[in-house]
Amino acid sequence: MHGLGNDFVIFDARKHPVSPSKVDIVRIADRRFGVGCDQLIIIEPSQRADAFMRIYNADGGEVSSCGNATRCVAWMLMEESGKDKASILTKAGLLSCERIEKNLIRADMGEPKFNWDQIPLSEARDTLHLGISLENLADPVAVSMGNPHMVFIVADVDKMDIAKLGSTLEHHPLFPERANVSFAQPKGDNEILLRVWERGVGETLACGTAACATLVALHRRGLIASKANIRLPGGVLEVEWDKASNHVFMTGPVVLSFSGQLYE
After folding, report:
1. Residue burial 155-194, b: 16+ Cβ < 10 Å; e: rest
2. pLDDT for 13-64, tens place per residue?
3. Residue 136 contacts by C-beta under 8 Å, 6 or more apart in sequence?
4. CA–CA separation, 242 vs 226, rounded Å?
5. What is the pTM of this model?
6. 97 tagged catalytic
7. Which of 19, 157, 199, 210 is deepest in the core (most CB within 10 A)?
8. CA 85, CA 255: separation in Å to the nearest integer?
9. Cα dihedral 158, 162, 166, 168 in deg (nearest 10)
């Protein structure tokens, strides 16, 4: 499945457990020798939700949150149940989703976190002004959406050397769990152009948690409204930071590309 080109290999392990090794995950994620994906997802049974979602990046590392995968798995659960709502438990917490249209899913991504030790950072810093710079980049914002994000505000996102800058900043010593690095260009009050370097993956066509983190970061800086369209290379996500609940909501499409069987 994919959400705006952010693609996943999804295993349903609710009846038959699946426990791939790191080597297995890397091989499956390989776009030439495996299936190819940004993340490998395993759906497991849960007592607290409709399902538990386990998330691995293409490099085999397990992570806590993935917004586009949340919407994809929610759509699968809704198709299965015939309902228009689904709940998914992740390592980042319990997430609820609802169907807006047939393949358009809205996910409650929970509360953004700003304290340095919640991101987490390796030392106390003002997360609204991190004090990091690299070449023509400076002064990013740090936000956690269940995973660590570093958001830079840029004048022209198309001129950014994402591969060079992202691969370096991902491993910045201030981020002990590595960083997802966003390059955001605000366009008026309700639109952001965004490119994302995901830790353990590289540049992706879309990243749901990065879209949420970026909206929050730019709104905290007074550069954007609390609801905006986030335009990524793969398409558009609508993100809203609801101040009453302090939850971030993300709406976007999901696509089932194919289903099949992997041979050992």
Report:
1. eebeebebeebbeebbebebbeebbbbbbbbbeeeeebbb
2. 999 999 999 999 999 999 999 999 999 999 999 999 999 999 999 999 999 9
3. none
4. 7
5. 0.93
6. no
7. 210
8. 17
9. -120
Dihedral sign from CA coordinates of 123, 126, 128, 131: negative
Question: Which position among 66, 72, 97, 212 bears the catalytic label?
Answer: 66
Percentage of residues in the chain with pLDDT exceeding 70? 100
Residue tagged active-site, from 37, 72, 97, 207:
207
Per-residue pLDDT tens for 248-258?
999 999 999 99
212 is catalytic: no
Read off the tokens for 41.
């997802």
pLDDT in tens, 97-112: 999 999 999 999 999 9
Question: Tens digit of pLDDT for each residue in 199-234?
Answer: 999 999 999 999 999 999 999 999 999 999 999 999
Residue 145 φ then ψ, to 5°: -115, 45
Say which amino acid occupies 47. Q
All domains of the chain in start order, with CATH: 2-106 (3.10.310.10), 133-250 (3.10.310.10)
Structure tokens of 118? Answer: 């919640």
| SS3 label, residue 130 | coil
Q: Where are the beta strands (DSSP E) in 26-164?
A: 39-44, 51-57, 62-63, 85-90, 93-101, 104-108, 133-134, 137-138, 141-144, 148-153
The full length of the chain comes to 264
pLDDT band at 2 (very low <50, low <70, confident <90, very high): very high
Report the share of the chain in percent with pLDDT over 90. Answer: 98
